[in-house]
Amino acid sequence: MERTNPGHSSKNSNVTTCTYYVVSSIVAGAMTLCVALRLYVRFRITRSPWWDDANAVLSLVSNPRHGTIKHIITSAFISCWNLRAYTGLIWRSDYSRPCFRLGMAMALTKALGISDAAKPHLRNHRPNGQNFTKITLLLLYLRPFFIKTGLKVAIWIGLVFCNAYSFAHVFVYNLVDRGPLVAVTHSVSIVGAVSDVYILALPMYVVAQLHMRAAKKGRVAAVFLTGLLFHYTSDQTWSLLPIYIVRIVETGVGIICSCLPILPPLFKAKDDKQMRGQRLPVFPPRGPQKPLPVNGSLVSSEGGFHADIPISIGTLNEASSSS
């Protein structure tokens, strides 16, 4: 058995390794499903895709369990870019396409060394995946709450801070000689905790001002407070495999929480489709319909009856004989 330092777990432990693969596979599947449903709702149902959707995809592919997907997509984009550049087939309209922008962003992350293969010693000390998720949440807030000027400024402050910190981390610890990893971990812990609380506090101010019952306010606030599951405090044991499992779950839950507020139109569209399938044909009216009470039921003046109103056979016979 491999010797380990006191307080450290062996990464060759069968139980821990199997737990890691099982948990990470489940979380990766749940993340992929939620992001796919989010894109389906935005592109097919509401038809209102925006930058937060592209950022959600970046959050997904930046997750440690999706390194292979990230390399495949980035390499494919770079290959297509080189091919079109050599053949002179690059049009100005390409720059306005969402897939082009997404590919450019992913190529930039690879060029800056965010990928796992670029700097192995920084795999456990890069906050870019978490920052992509935080930026997705802030962009989500920017859509329904854009009327509030003060809140809009606060959201933009959070966006600028998260982006600036992420790129500063990349340049300092990827393009320059790395410093003490303990200092890196402490900075990630403090900045992560402060930014998590800041992001969770933004929608609570708006929810408190909504004109609705307290119970309904609580339900609306609970949707945003699911982000508490993404709140974390890191320490120098981040490189341990059990703690690494928690990090995988934490990042995955953050991505899932950023997709949950987008999914209600999916269920509403499904209910509407079922109602349309259960609708029965109704005979067209033959003139002005003035309902008249006949034995407690509503029968039209033309001898017909209204849909969705139960009428007994005896009532129909009386109505036909009276006409």
Helix content: 55-70%
The run of helices and strands is HHHHHHHHHHEEH
Number of domains: 2
Number of strands: 2
Q: What topology, given as strand order, has the largest sheet?
A: 1-2
Largest sheet entry: 2 strands, antiparallel
Oligomer: single chain
Report the C-alpha radius of gyration, rounded: 28 Å
Please, how many helices?
Answer: 11
Task: Indicate the mean pLDDT.
Answer: 63
Low-pLDDT residue spans: 8-12, 66-96, 110-127, 232-239, 279-284, 294-313
**Overall geometry:** globular
Structure report:
- The protein is an all-alpha fold and about 325 residues long.
- The protein folds into two domains: about 15-270; about 290-320.
- It has eleven helices and two strands; from the N terminus they run ααααααααααββα.
- It has helices at about 15-45, 50-60, 65-85, 100-110, 130-140, 150-175, 180-210, 215-225, 240-260, 265-280, 315-320, and strands at about 290-295, 295-300.
- A two-stranded antiparallel sheet has the order 1-2.
- Strand 1 (about 290-295) and strand 2 form a beta hairpin.
- Helix 7 (about 180-210) runs antiparallel to helix 8 (about 215-225).
- The model is unreliable at about 10, about 65-95, about 110-125, about 230-240, about 280-285 and about 295-315 (pLDDT under 50).
- InterPro entries: Rhodopsin_dom_fungi, SAT4-like.
- It is found in: Membrane.
- It holds the Pfam family Fung_rhodopsin.
- It is a multi-pass membrane protein.
- Belongs to the SAT4 family.
